[in-house]
Amino acid sequence: xxxxxxxxxxxxxxxxxxxxxxxxxxxxxxxxxxxxxxxxxxxxxxxxxxxxxxxxxxxxxxxxxxxxxxxxxxxxxxxxxxxxxxxxxxxxxxxxxxxxxxxxxxxxxxxxxxxxxxxxxxxxxxxxxxxxxxxxxxxxxxxxxxxxxxxxxxxxxxxxxxxxxxxxxxxxxxxxxxxxxxxxxxxxxxxx
Length: 192
Prior knowledge:
Blueprint: H1 8-17, H2 26-42, H3 54-80, H4 84-111, H5 121-131, H6 135-163, H7 167-191
Helix pairs in contact: 3-4, 3-5, 3-6, 4-7, 6-7
């Protein structure tokens, strides 16, 4: 029998052996949609983690190195400084930067950024160089380093505040800027 001359009944019987694709039926589409919703509901709802830009990640990592350095140099100043104002500034640096470092660590954890727990080679050399100094030579070098560092920090924090698109990073930076500015004003006054 020629396929062109098959009766309607014979064609229906042939089609019974080859059902419509499952995905084309309304019931199948509904079933797949319900499965997809079920899969979505089965996934634990976690706080959405936003992907940080490379610039934000680099800023966080640099701020962490700077913060650890500030604490270590502050400890040196509190211990080795010969001037009371240098010692007091060192103690303030330890206190304030310990708080900022803790806030930065929490932000980094929230954003999936792993912070270093030790200094890189450049910052370690800075601490070692300062540790080798004594007397007024230490005081003068510490004051000069803190002025230079805080000018740079103030500039970088303000630039990050203006450029970041991440609200959490911006909040951290904006809360830190007044502290950095306070430190800069104080160390400039100490130099005079």
